[in-house]
Every structure is written in C-alpha cells, then in structure tokens.
Amino acid sequence: MDPSIFETAEEDARLEKIAKDHFAQGNHIKALEVIEDAFSKRGKDNVPGMFHYLQGSILYHLAKRAKKSDVTFAFLLGCVEPFTDDFGLHAFSARALLEMAEQLDSELYYKKAEKDAELRLSLLESCGELDPADLETQRTLANISNEAELKILHGCTGKSPVPALEESKEARGMIMSDSNKAADKRLRSQWASMSVEAKKNFMKVSVSKLRGYVERLYGEEGKKALDEVLDSTRIDKKWRFWLCRTCSRKFFYVKKFRNHLEQEHGAKFKRATAKNMPEMVNEALAGMILDGGWEPVDAVAAADMIKTRLESVKEFVYEEGWSKDWPLAEDEERSNLLKQIQYHLVLLWESKVLCFTTLEWMMELPILARFEVTESLIAECGLVGTPQRICFWDCHELKRIRDLLKLTKFERDDGTDLVCRAVERLCGRTGVKEKIEFDEQFSFMLLDKRLLRGKIDPFDDEGTIDACKHDYYAKTQPQGDDIITWLLDYPLIDGSFEFPRSARAHNLDIWVAILRAIHYTCRDWGTKYARKLENLYYDKVLTDAKNLCTREDERRRTAPEGEANVAYASLLGDRCEELKTDNGDPPNGRNFVFAVRDVLERAPDPTFEFDDLEASLDLIHGLKDLSDGTVLESIDHLKSVVTDKVLLADSKILLVEKSRISLLNELTRLSAFDYRSYIRNLLRRFMRVGGLKLWFYRKSFHLRSDFFLVCTLYCGLCLFFQNELNEIVKMDALAKVAAAEADLLSSEKQEKEKKSGSKSKKRGVIKDELNEIVKMDVLAKVAAAEADLLSSEKQEKEKKSGSKNKKRGVIKKTSTSTSADIEQNVEPESSPPLKLVEEDCIEPEDTLNIASNTDNQEETAKDMQNKPGEDLLSKHMESPLVAAATKCNLALDMTLKALCKIKVLKEYLVLNQDEFADNQEGQVPYALRDFFTAFASKTIKEGMYSYLLGNVLASLEEARSMSSDAAELLVSILEFWPCWRTPDIESCVTHIFTLEEYERMSCSKCRKNPNYPEQSSYGVVVAADSIRDLKRAFGKMKLEDILKLIRMEYKMLCDAKTEGCGKTNFVHHIISRCPPIFTIVLKWEKNETEKEIHETTKALHREIDISRLYEGMEPNTTYRLVSMVGCSEEEEYICLSFKKNLWVSYRHEALAKKAVGGWTNVVRFCEKMKVRPEILFYEAVPKLDQ
C-alpha cells in the first residue's frame, strides 16, 4: 500500500483536531480557515467527510447564535450542502431544511426536508441493528418526514418574513454625535483658528508617523498589517479588490473574480455539454410581446387569403413583428385569453424566466396546417418568428397555452431575498466616500480635498490611487468645519472588520455559508437538468415509436392486396425484443421498452424506470391486441405531457439559475475589500490624537502653574493617547478639570508673588516658563487618571438619571380624542398579552412647550388646558367657523391622525422641530406649525388637541374653499405646512412624500425617444372598482401587479408635432429614488355593497414591491402599510394604524379607540362597518443597519 495514504490520513486527522480545538474555544473563524485551506489544497470533493461535517456543524451553530432572521437563514442554507456531502447517518441536513421551511413557510423546503429525511431513513434501515444513538436519529428523521408531509398537505404561503423595523445603529450614532456638540467644541475652535496652510497640512498624514503610532498601539501585528496595506497600494495603485476567502487570491477585476469562483470553486454547475440549455427570450422578441396588439385573427379567412391572394399577403406591413392587415375575429373569449397570455408572458419576461423554447413552441404550433397551408407559405407571409402567430389559435389551444403559463413559476420561495438582505446589512457598513491619494514618494497620505469644502455624498467604488506630483490642495479653499464631523464620526461597525484583523477573516463565516449555498443551488440545478434530459430522451423514444407506426401505414398503402396488416402494438412489441439488450447511452433500448409499456398501458404520465425488464416485456406482449387508434392516442397524450414537462423544466432551471446568479452577486459583494474602510477609523483616531495634542500644548502654554501641575497635564495627555480608542469621549472633562486646577493654583501663586517683590516675581515667572518648556517630557499621570475616574463615575450616574428622565417624559393617557391616541398602548380584549416595545420616536429629555408666536396664543392655550375636554369640544363645535364643517372636521381629524402614525415622519419632526420657521406668512402655516410642533414635542395636553385641530380647520377654510374629501385635505396639508419650505433643512414633502417620476416612451415604429420633463406627485390615484375587477379576473394577483396592469392601459402617442410618427406606445414609468412614504388614494363610487367593499379591501396587500411599478428601482423594494384613512357609509371618517403587531381603529369621539387585530380582521372590519379605505400610507422597509 502507498505510504502516502497513511501520511495523508495523519495530516487530515491533525487538521481536524486543530479545527475542532478552535471551534471548541469559540474561534469559529480560525476553524473555518483551517477547513477552507484543506479545500483549497486538495479540492472540496477530495477531502474526508469529517471536514464537511465539521463545517456544517459550525455553520449550524452560527445559525442558532444569529440574532437576525435573515442571517439565521443564510447560515442554515449554507450548512445543508456540507451535511449533504458528508453522507453520514444524522438528521442535521433534514433539520436545517425543516427550519428554513418553517421560517419561510416554503413548500420547496418542506419537500426537500421530507426527501432528505426519507433518504437517510432508508440508509438507516439498510444498516441492520442500530445502536441507541442511531435509533434516536431514526426517530428524529421520522418526525421531520411526518411534519413536512403534513405541512405540505395543509398548504404553504411561501412568503419570506420581513424583520421588524429597527432603528439603525449608525443613524443613532450620528444623532448622538450631532447632539453632543460640546464634545467637539474645542476641536472646532482649534480648526477655526488655524490658517489655510495649516488646515491643508493637517490633511496630509505622514506614513512614517502613522506606522510608529500603529506599532505603539498594536505591536508587530499592527505593523505587519499596515505594511501589507501600504505595499498593496504602492504596487497595485488600488484600494479596492476582491479577495477569495478560500484560496486567498486577490483580483482587481470583478469579472475575473467571478470566473475564478465559477471555475475553481464550484460556483457554477459544470455540465458535460451546452446542448439543451434553456435560454432567455431576447430583447427583440420581448419588445414584440410588450408592444403587440394581441387581437384574435380569423384563421379561416387568413388561410383563404394565403391560398388565393398570396401576392397581396406578401405586401403586408409588419411593425415590431405585428401586422394590422390580417383579418380580425370578433371573439371576446379569444381576446380575453390572448390578453391573459400577454400578461403572463410579460410577468415571466420581467422575472427573467421566459424561456425561448416556450415562446418558440407557442409560435410553431401548426394551426394553419389544418387549412392545408404549408410552412413555406407561412414563411413567405412573414409569420415566422412573430408572436402574432399565437393569435391564429382557437380557444382550445389558447387555453392550453394559458394553463401552461399559469403553471410556470416566475419566482422561487427559496429565501434568496433573505440572503441578499443579510449581505446588504453587512456591506452597507463598509461603503467608502472618501478618496485617499499619495504623494509621489508615497510618504504622505492625502485625504480627500472635498473634506475641506464640505460633506461628500457619492460613494467612490473605484478606489484608484493617483500619485500626486504637485500640491494636491493647491486649488482648494477650506470652507466650514465638516472635517471635524468626519473626524468625530464613530461608526458602529462589526468588530471583525477592525484593523489589524486579517482581510480574509472579514465576514469569512457568512462568505463560506453563501458559497456553500451556491453549491447547494448548483446541486439543485443539476438535478433539474437531469430530469429534463430524461424527458427529452423519453420524447425521443416516443417519436421513434410513432415513426415506426407511420412507416407501417406507408407499407400498408403499398402492400399487395390480401397481405395482412401488422398491429401497432405487435410491431412495437417486436421492436422491444430487438432493443432489450441495448444498454448504451440514453436513449437506449431499455428506455424504449419502458416507454412502450407506458403507451400500451395508457399511462397518464411517463414512467422513467421499472424494476424488471422481463416483466415489462411480458406485459407488452400481453397487450398486442390493442387497437391502432388507441396506441396513437396514447403516444400523442404522452408526447403532450412530456412537452409540457420539458417546457416547465426549462423555466425551473432558469429560476434556479436566477437564484444562483443572485447568490453569486451577493458573494461577490461580500468578497469586495476596500483598504480605506479597513484603515479609516485608524486614520481618524491618529488625526484626532494629533489635533487634540496640539490643543493640549496650546492650553498648557497659557497656564501659569508650578511644575507639578504642568507634569499632571502632560501625563494626562499621555494616558489619553494610550487609551484613545476608549477615552476619546472623556476629553472635555479632562481638559476642564486640569484647566480649573491650573487657574486655582495660578491665582494662589500670584497672590504669593505679589508679596515677595518685583524681582523675585520676574525670576519666578521665568523659572516657571523654563520648567514648563524644558521639562515637558517628564510629566506625571495623576490628574488624567483622576479625571478619567471621575468622568466614568459621572457617566454611570447620568445613565441612571437619564433612564428616569425618559420614563418621566412619556406622556400619560388623557381623556381627549387624540392626545392620548398618539402613543397609547392598545391590546385586544381576547388576545394574548403583547410584549412591550420601546416608543416609536425619540423623546427629548425635557418636555418642550408648544411653540407659539405671541403671548396671547400662550395664554389662550393655558386657558384651554384648564377646561375639561368634553366641554371644550362642545363649545368649539358651536363656533361659526366649525359648525358648518363638521364633516370636513372629521376628515381632517382622521387625516392628521393617520399622518401622526407614520414612524419616519415622527422621527423627522422630532429631529427638526427646532428648525420650523417662525417667519411664515398667513394663518394656515402658523396653525399647522403649532399642531406639528406640539406633536413633535409630545406636549398635547388634555383639551389642546381639539383647540389645535380647530385652528387648522378654520385657517384652511379661510385660505381656500374646503372639501370634505380626505385626499384633497391631505394635499392642502402638504402644500401649506411651513416645514415643507424651511430653507435651512431639506424640504420634508420632497424628502418623505414626493415621487419624482419620468415617463419614457420608446416608439416601436420610428424608434424616437422623446424626453418628457420630470413630474412630481404625492402618490398614485386609482379607481377602487378597477382593482376589484382585476382581482376577480386574475385571482391571486398581487396589488402591485394589479396597479401595473391598470397602468398598461395608459398609452402615449408618438407626437407628430415633434417629428414623431403618431403611433400609440406603452409608457415606462421611472423614478430616480424611493421616497420613505408611498401613498395610494382609492376613488370610490360611494354606493358599494358590503361584498364589494370586502373584495376591494382584500385585494389590498400589507406589503407591496414598487419595483414592480416603476423602473429604476432595485428588485424587492418593499413598502409596508402603516396607516390609512377610510370613510364609512354614514360619511364618518375612521383612521386605522398598525402599532405593536396589530391594527387599531381611531374615531373622532373621545376615547373611541379599538384594537382590530391582524389584516384579516381589518378586511372583516371594513366589510362589517362598510368602511371604504381612501388613503393608504405605505412606509419603506429599511435595509437594516445600512
């Protein structure tokens, strides 16, 4: 035996022990590095199963530890492939599949879990007697199989869960940084006092000094890491690259990196041949599908025209594959079927799963052959390769096409979107906006000159380095002090990305998980491709069988009279005997035998394998008397079934390929590594130290104290430098304490010097100054340590007192109609207790008063607060301004309540409440400003809400002719609210509510692309009955697809005035950014029945994906319904909002608040109360921690 085998086994055992030890010590990154090194050295398929099992165990352990559902799913998906490669007798892969199925409620993973469990159960059964551990595994697998089977029977929704809305940690960090202005006051003061040249020099970072700082801070490890960064940037002239975590190779071009993953690390299924590979429909055919008329053609009249007037038919004009010269049929059923076929084709095309073979099959069905029109004549008429050929079919064939398209899935509930969300969470933290250049000698890093002028908005994804031969900052004039904001920015990123940890370790765990998920997807890809080949082979032998029967027909026509005919069944049986020994490449003799058996048994579906060949032959010979017609009918049926299976297999393969590409894209994003983000925080700390050190020197120079105090100050600075990473926040406290002590001692010393005379005073001052200058390097550490201790104790006390203040700042429940409604906790009477959550918006530490412009307003507000809520409301309703507008008052009340329930609007108002303009003209801005200032400050007392609402109503009524329509009131609020036009902050209406939409029309005839100006709107208006009618017609269609189908009816003329051709074309709707709020307004006839209200409300979805409505958006741009305004049959307006996992209804009467429950309960509520939803506010689901 080869001794190298023993050496390899010993090496494998050693590596396994190292990896296990790392894992046991909690260092899963090191364990994964050891395993990936083994895979890189010997190949994934050539290492023992114990490596796969250990890697799967690590990933499964990480899934259990993850706190985010999307990260949990990514690790679960990643661990399935290693457990599958292990081939061991365990239940881990089946358990992981079941957990993914439960998380997604996915039939796909339930089926996979059941299949995996059944496979491993069969392996256990073949092992004979089992030990206790194997028996326990057997029971676990049986439970998984039964649970999965039961869940499949009950049905699955297949919807990916969206994590609960969370506050971004980085946003929270930025808020704290902006609010804590005192912490950076001295740095800003120092920056303001610096000359222009000094500011420019400050932006130059000395490489040698930075290396010394890193070596003191991190030792040899840090020096080595920094040298690696500097060597790479000097040689490659790039900050950004792609790092393969398996083999540690670096790539500077993404295409080469992707090819490396696919060729070297199995990120693409390697098939033996490219034959029979499904292909997407090209852009030309897609354009024909989108722009076609899709009207039914009179096939009989068309065939007659071809046969009798061929020359005139040849002159038919085709535009984008469609001709208007063909005779049309007045057939409403065919017209509806064609519209449905077009809709499904468009959906499949947009989902990137419309296969060319499917469209080709639809266009090549021999409809005109029934009327003796040959393919050559069809080609002469221009009907080859055009979807208009589908319009010739009658209802029977169109239904078959439609039913096949309905079976074709355009999305796969495999959780890929969750993996993308997990990657987005990680990659969103590492984007780099700042450019960093070097001088020609690479001795200085030159920070982005734009930092001297202000903030930097766009990200720099190139990361190229230019060696500057001239003064980089020569033409740059410093403006403002945004550089200090940049220096004091504390991004709360994952510690695994902090310098000097190796680049390979960055996100290695989830990188490995996604690579293994790609391997699992490729396994699925190969399985579906193998099934397609089986169907193709089956179709081939059926074709051979039918050809055999056709040749028998020809023989019968030429055979002498009296010669006996051979039955098709007997003929096929004889052929089976001839081919039964053929075991070559498929399709072989065995495939032919099994197919003939299916034909003669009239099987509804193909059977690809039988256990006993001889038994199959006996059955075939026993059915030799079967009639020829039955045989042909069975062959045609099976060919039709197989054709459908092949076409569906192509779409499934494209779906799997789509998932593979999506995962590969995310793996590529994870692999990107930017040295700037790696050393950015290091540079900030280094530059902060330099700036603070300069401030300390200047402060110390002006102190007139004894030697001990100066020593105290300087060594306090030294201690700060040693612990700068953790002590940066304590800087101000240290400076204030030291300065106070210095001033006190200096004043005491001056009193003594006054008594000792002028000569000794001069000598004392000179001596003190010499001591201050010469002996600066031997200062002690006492004061800094004392200041740090006091500062830390003070911070602990402030944390405790801050929590108490926050509790006191929460508004209590009141008896007014809305002041209590804004932040009350509501629980349904019969529901289980809900878990308490934090307030939706940020609460100021001190309660602010309502901002008023005059003393009279403040006195009036106090008077109103002293009155009971009910009396105030009744008196206010008697006033002449409101009595005539009760209905308008209800609509305004509910519209304002619905706005107040929008979280992103709450946060904006809280952050910018001090920026509301005081110089607005007119009563409306003042009334609205007072209302929203009170809301942002959370100071609406008992009775105040009705007073503020009355002011808004009265002012709006004076400003314009008021309407009781809630949508028109919403527009009035958005147009009048002064905060929208405050010059010091970004327009809120633009930022939060406004859609900036472009309408693009590409003429399919003359190819002109007119440029239409950008249009602004607050949302989308749609008729409620249109939504209801389309929902009835298309069943489970999503709301966004219904809206899209409605908008497909909107077409635009190619304007002849601008040299256009006048053709009507589809309009493409494009938006450049996603507003935080997407508003939908429903228009009702106001005479709907309960059933119609129920159907319409049921068609509304809790979540919509506006990337289905607008181009230019990333896929899966999800918005979630958070509040809405509805109107009942009695013209009473009601507000519904989603709070703490349930819907709550609000009415105008005091304390009229009621828990409704889930979305199904909302639908029933609207039906029962005859509430017609009129305004829907959808809030963007954030990409968390971006």
Automatic annotation (TrEMBL):
The keyword Signal does not apply. Residues 244-265 form the C2H2-type domain. Residues 791-801, 859-868 have a biased composition (Basic and acidic residues). The keyword Hydrolase applies. Residues 802-811 have a biased composition (Basic residues). InterPro entries: DUF627_N, DUF629, Papain-like_cys_pep_sf, Peptidase_C19_UCH, Ubiquitin_hydrolase_53/54, Znf_C2H2_type. Keywords: Hydrolase, Ubl conjugation pathway. Gene3D superfamilies: Cysteine proteinases (3.90.70.10). One of its GO terms (biological process) is protein deubiquitination. Residues 791-835, 847-868 are annotated as: Disordered. Residues 813-822 have a biased composition (Polar residues). Pfam families: DUF627, DUF629, UCH. GO terms for molecular function: cysteine-type deubiquitinase activity. This is C2H2-type domain-containing protein. It comes from Brassica campestris (Field mustard).
